[in-house]
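Sequence and structure are kept together here, with a separate record for every protein. A complete record is shown below as an example:
=====
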Amino acid sequence: MSKRTTLPVLAGLLAATLVPAGCRDALSPERRGRPAAASVAAASGIALDQQNGALGERGTALIKGFNPTNPRLGSTIIATFYWLGSTNIIPTVFDHLADGTPVGNGYHLVTYVTADDIAMATFVATNVQNFPEGTFPSGEKILVVEATFSAEIADGGILISSYTGVDAVFDRALGAQAVASGSGSTATIADPGAIEVSAGALAYGATMANRVVGITSPANFTPLNNGAMSNDAIKTDGEFAVQASAGSVDPQWTWFFDQDPRVGTWLATVLALNPPPPPATHLVFTVQPSNTTAGSTISPAVQVAAQDDAGVTVTSFAGSITIALGTNPAGGTLSGTKIVTAVNGVATFSTLSIDRAGNGYTLVATATGLTGATSAPFNIAAPQARVDVSGGGRIDPAIGKTTFGFDVDSRSGPPFQGDMQVVYHGGTSPMTRIHSVLIDGVTSSPDPRGGVCITWTGSARVNNGDQRRFTATACDNGQPGSSHGAGPDRFGISVDGSVNTGLTDLKGGNAQARQ
């Protein structure tokens, strides 16, 4: 009989076909050399680095070092602890050098299983750091992994192994896990259950039993620490496999019990560790810019994603993405936040607007080291606004009194229709006339006082001279007539090299703006 628990799948898929392998003696295990590189590494780059193990330990700690050669910095360590007991009494797992120097990598409990007074727990630390690389025959700089127990154990063991090529972030690295336990009196299958794993992932399996004389290990897996370990009370085995395709993995051991007549008990676990995600190679507009009016925010917000060669968004990408105008049919200006840091691989541009109407605008997105992207074409229409002053208006800025009259209708454009006459009384000249207006841009925005502000741009003549660029703004407070409401209507104009009144309260007249 057996009990099985399959833990939630946290990874994708990796395929493995398993068939029984030959039996080997657990009491005097065959000593094997380190597996060849071809058997421990797949296209993903995950590979076995270092390994070690021991049984027959007792007391309140299980300790083992990677002597004589430390793992590589940035690798992942898997540590499985075996002991006689019925509860998990490991409060902490940590690492240090053999001379006592603390190292401080974090070890996470991934699987735990117990039955019939034997127990097994597996911990994982990713991206290990803070120790010297290399071989240390004298042993004082060897990296040591230690589990402390809250009560003394009568017998126990430890299996440690390190792997290069695993994702450095634990939450991304950890894939699916499964554990199971069972018993038997003769040849008995120890099966933790199948798990789904991603292409290029590492599948790690471990098993433990009592009262056995032999073991058959899973096919397509490579034994760790030169094969099974055993003493009079505990028999253990650890295995791993890296495969190139996605699917399920189901490591199955066969334990040969000694027919005591008591039944023997087995434990088994399997877990997956993922390689890093493929790197981002190019940008894609995942939310295209939509048609809108001049000066209005493009909505919904434009989104650009960093994707890999397979077209999958790389959620680990957190670089800056810059957006700019590509095709610019009307000489418009792109406003808003144009450099955004990606979150989960996606940059969201929520404040973009273009000030001039035109058809066939495009946006371009760029990021350092990635192929850029160009958006689909979109159109910017003129805002439907009209502003006029009848009977004239007057402002009295500090630089001099200004009188004006205007009538601007953006519904006609582009090009827009309108008339404007502005007379500026100030400075060294007794009068400056601004006239002969050509309007090429109109935008609108809410007036904080209530109502709306209309801004129009173009060229105008000054005192019958050459055309000069101007910008004029009129704000209607939304109140009838000359009523102030939250403040009077306002007007302002700037002309290149001539006049800049600033947006100033009207002293006479009434601006009427409509959208």
